[in-house]
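Handout, section B. The chain below has 71 residues.
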Amino acid sequence: MVTYKVLLDTRRVKSDGTYAVQIIITYNRTTSTVNTGVFIKEKFWNKEQLNVSPSHPNAQLLNRNDCLLTF
């Protein structure tokens, strides 16, 4: 069974104060991390729902499942 989780990688900050949105994929107890190419500030990340908060200007586009999962 394959599971995935979308996370904000707060370990590495860019010079403009943004963080990378990554997807953690687990299959047969093996995990892989995929960078989505999306960078947002931490204040726009919803930690409870693990998505972009509605206060972000492009929240609807970024929260679509097919937007982040095209890699």
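Note. The chain has two helices and five strands. Compare this with the example in section A.
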